[in-house]
Amino acid sequence: MEAVCRQLTQKKQELNLQKELKWQRVTPNYLSKYQEFIDLVFAFIADDKIKMRIMFTQNIHVAKRYGDYHREYKYFLLYYQFIKHAFGLNQVNHGGTRVRLYLDKMPDTKEKVARFKEHVFALNKNPQFRRMDVKFDREQIAEINSKDHVLAQSLDIVLGAMQFRLNDKHKDKPEGQRTRGKRTIAKHKLYNHINSHIRNIYPGFNIGVNTSERNEKSNRWHDAYRHWLFKPTDHEVDTSKGKKKK
Predict the structure, then answer these.
(1) 135: which DSSP letter?
(2) Distance, CA of 244 to CA of 246 (rounded, Å)
(3) Consecutive H or E run containing 221
(4) Rounded CA gap, 67 and 120, in Å?
(5) What pTM was computed for the model?
(6) 54-75 confidence digits (pLDDT tens)
């Protein structure tokens, strides 16, 4: 992993990308540089040197039991489910796996963050994780500043691209204008560039659904790149909350 981070940092320097890489900073002038950087990221993904998981929700899936507690802790509850399920840690096929969690700075109180970390640490008691000998070290559940972590910046670009497309931001036009802005066009081109890499891994890839397990649950762990459409276990579908057709 250190070698991957070193090469990604070197690529940033070669491209003269001095600031933190972020989806919001994609512009026409920087498009080709971000594309070249993403080429290296997906080369590592294709070689299974890094794994990437994207989790998202759809407004039409409404939890039936959703009270004040869920509203207050929504961010932490989703993050917990992501950690527990998205990487298929309960499908690891070799023992003695130790998990390090580098969490982007959490937008909440120290008390709530500390409580969240304790819940994550308690996953050590989960029967499936114990059976697979997967363990979380309390000292390795840490918050980071993404400015100092090139992998977090890489994820921000891909996650931003998915959010951009899933929310139809590629269709946005400035108020009163008939055509899209140059920045929106640049972002759409970068999304398409990223999508082409994913389709090299998964021909026919569909951004808005779960990545197929292909009849093998262990692929939740083995796959280098996956999407997860999170739905509350007890939910109902409210189509009025879906995308509005223009």
Answers:
(1) E
(2) 6
(3) helix 219-222
(4) 22
(5) 0.89
(6) 998 866 555 666 678 878 888 8
